[in-house]
Amino acid sequence: MAHPGKGKPPRVGDNPVFRRTLLAFVLVLVALMIVAPLVVIAVEAFSRGVGYFAASIADPDTRHAILLTVVTALIAVPVNTAFGVAAAWAITKHDFRGKRLLTVVIELPFSVSPIVAGVSYLFVYGLQGLFGPALQSAEIKILFALPGIVLASMFVTAPFVARELIPLMQAQGRDLEEAATSLGASGWRTFVSVTLPNIKWALLYGVVLCNSRVMGEFGAVSVVSGNIRGQTNTLPLHIELLYHDYNAAGSFAAASILAGLAIVTLIAKVALERQGAGRVQRPSQLAGADSITPEVKP
Amino acid sequence: MKIRLDNVVKEFQTFRAVHGVSLDIESGELVALLGPSGSGKTTILRMVAGLEYADGGAIYFGEENATDIPVRERGVGFVFQHYALFPHMTVGENIAFGMKVSKVRRSPEAITRRVAELLDLVQLGGLKDRFPGQISGGQRQRVALARALAVDPRVLLLDEPFGALDANVRRDLRRWLRKIHDELGITTLFVTHDQEEALDLADRVVILNKGKIVQEGTPEAVCRNPADAFVMNFLGDANRLDADIRGGKAYVGDVAFEAGGVADGSGQILFRPADVTWREDGHGIAARIVRVIDRPDSRRVLALTGSGQPVEFDTAPEFPHRKGEAGFLDIRRPRAYSAA
Question: Do A40 and A114 belong to one domain?
């Protein structure tokens, strides 16, 4: 019998030299491209001391920008979540004409530059635009106001939830829903107790991505918001404004808030996953028959 | 509950269509829908369940026209091919699901009691708190059955119930399902493409091809009297030889076989590999051995007839002849049909 020679990898493709090179390459890139900028943000934000940082954050315009960003997310994310679930459900569990077209159209915002989206909103809702005169006479302000910002953010992030759900729901097929219905469950009951629990992690992931993108959206929003300080400036726009004002420390302070919001989102996702994972790993399932865990509540 | 299908039609652009199927299933009967893939058998089952609506015809449950009753209210228990157990619920929760969503209110105690009863029935008493991902395929299949039975269905429908299991588990589960059926006496319809499964399990076998019933009857009837060459081929290995039908006889070369009731003209005879004897005395159809294949309990011999048509037959393991030898095929129980 052949004896494995020294220096040979234990498995094909597990050469230690290759593995270390690969890992080093990835780590260097992560450090340069992801970690370093984040560190710079943190360092620059505090470059003029904690006092200046606090003052930057406490600036009414900055506070307003933070508030506006959060409000935009609070509107855009739930709406897009509902849209994503509905779209994924329609596409994966029903047959209709133009299904493929719809799938492609939903993904369109991914390929369209956000700035193009912003400009097209100008043409639709702007004063010289399609609905401009009608909106003006009705005194409804969409552009250069919150509705425009929310609409532009929603356009850009429309595909996120649907895109996470469609492949999963396609793979799951219709069997579970059919089974639930054949057992007497209503459509709503089937959705809540069968469909939703099986897509919740993908849904959550989609929501998190959608949220980070809404909060960070720059291009489309910068066209439709009008950049009015303290009124229609979202956090990303405000950061740019501060930077152009040669207020580097202030801009980095605001940027650190934005990065902080992103980290909070990520932590929320991980925490929720943990909780879910904990539920799946209940000891009773592994102990089997004679476990003494209490009755599982539905 | 007696089920009656009256000229049921379902159109599809692709295969799976059903063209005018009429069928009676007596109360308490266990019936197999047997056919190759694309023969429409699953579509029929799904129409009986109400998961798909018929484009034409009617389905009766007893005297009631059930054609347009939605699946929720039809009162059927459906066991899916891949079980469709809810992966996020325990075995117990899966079984309880139908009772929890039912319009008939049951107390939690009654549900718990019924779940325990059903788990006993399917012999899975200890697995109540496991998740579907933590039990074997055969166990999942039994959970799926218990879940379907929990809502006290009028009819039990099973789609390829043993399709995803290995051979040994499949045989055990087959016998076990028959036992459950005999205990409960519930009208049961199941779909399979495996003729052995259908013959083993069912009171009556309905054979489908291209969306139509080609034959129905007891396993004995369909085995002994296949209605046409398709049924003969589908039920098991069969040899086929071209023949001329003249005056109630089928001629293969100058050897004549009984062919009562078959129209004159070009035809065929079909016969099983076990119904051939190899002879050297000039009696039968001249042939030459091409290959001998050994099996644990027999030998399978591949031969070519004088006119170049292949024939396979089974012999005792002691069969002494070898490749290249010439002789004669003595065929018993041949069945003659018109050419397809």
Answer: no
| A291 to B84: CB separation less than 8 angstroms, yes or no | no
Answer positive or negative: Cα dihedral of A105, A109, A112, A116.
Answer: positive
Single out the residue of B190, B209, B213 nearest to residue B201, CA to CA.
B190
CATH-assigned architecture of domain B239-338: Beta Barrel (2.40)
- This complex has an ipTM of 0.85
Alpha-carbon gap, residue B35 to A65, rounded angstroms? 68
The pLDDT tens digits along chain A (298 residues) read 455 555 666 777 778 888 899 999 999 999 999 899 888 888 888 888 888 888 888 888 889 999 999 999 999 999 999 999 999 999 998 888 999 999 999 999 988 899 998 888 888 887 777 777 888 888 888 888 888 999 999 999 999 999 989 999 998 888 999 999 999 999 999 999 999 999 988 898 889 889 989 999 998 999 888 888 888 889 999 999 888 988 888 888 888 888 888 888 888 778 777 765 444 433 333 333 333 333 333 3
Using an 8 Å Cβ cutoff, are B160 and B81 in contact? yes
Yes or no, beta carbons of B84 and A193 under 8 Å apart? no
The answer to whether B94 and B134 have CB atoms below 8 angstroms apart is no
Query: Which residue in the set A186, A193, A296 is minimally distant from B90, CB to CB?
Result: A296
- Cα Rg of chain A (Å, integer): 25
Residues A32 and A104 occupy one common structural domain: no
Residue type, A214: V
How far does the CA of residue A83 sit from the closest CA of chain B (Å)? 25
- Name the residue range of residue A100's domain: 49-278
What are the backbone angles phi and psi of residue A15, rounded to the nearest 5°? -65, 125
Q: Return d(Cα A270, Cα B275) in angstroms, integer.
A: 69
Ranges of beta strands (E only) in chain B are: 3-10, 18-25, 30-34, 56-61, 64-65, 76-79, 155-159, 187-192, 204-209, 212-217, 239-246, 249-252, 255-258, 265-271, 276-279, 285-295, 298-305, 310-315, 326-331, 335-338
Task: With CB atoms and an 8 Å threshold, state whether B84 touches A178.
Answer: yes
**CATH number of the domain that residue A242 is part of:** 1.10.3720.10
Token readout for B304 is: 């070519």
* B90 with A181: Cβ contact below 8 A: no
Q: Is A285 on the interface with B (CB under 8 A)?
A: yes
**Residue B279 near residue B314 (C-beta atoms within 8 A):** no
Tokens of B266: 């070009």
Chain B residues inside the 8 Å CB shell of A289:
125-127
Shared domain for A40 and A164, answered yes or no, is: no
Task: Using DSSP, state whether A97 is helix, strand or coil.
Answer: coil
Q: What is the DSSP string of B185-225?
A: --EEEEEES-HHHHHHH-SEEEEEETTEEEEEE-HHHHHHS
Of the residues A93, A94, A95, A182, the best mutation for testing chain B's interface (the one with the most B CB atoms within 10 Å of its CB) is A182
Query: Is residue B299 within 8 Å of residue B319, measured between CB atoms?
Result: yes
Q: Which fold has domain B3-230?
A: Rossmann fold (3.40.50)
Name the pTM for this structure.
0.80
For chain B, the domains span 3-230, 239-338
Ramachandran region, residue A49 (left: φ > 0; alpha: ψ -120 to 50; beta: rest): left
Q: Are B62 and A157 in contact (CB under 8 A)?
A: no
3-class state of residue B51 by DSSP: coil
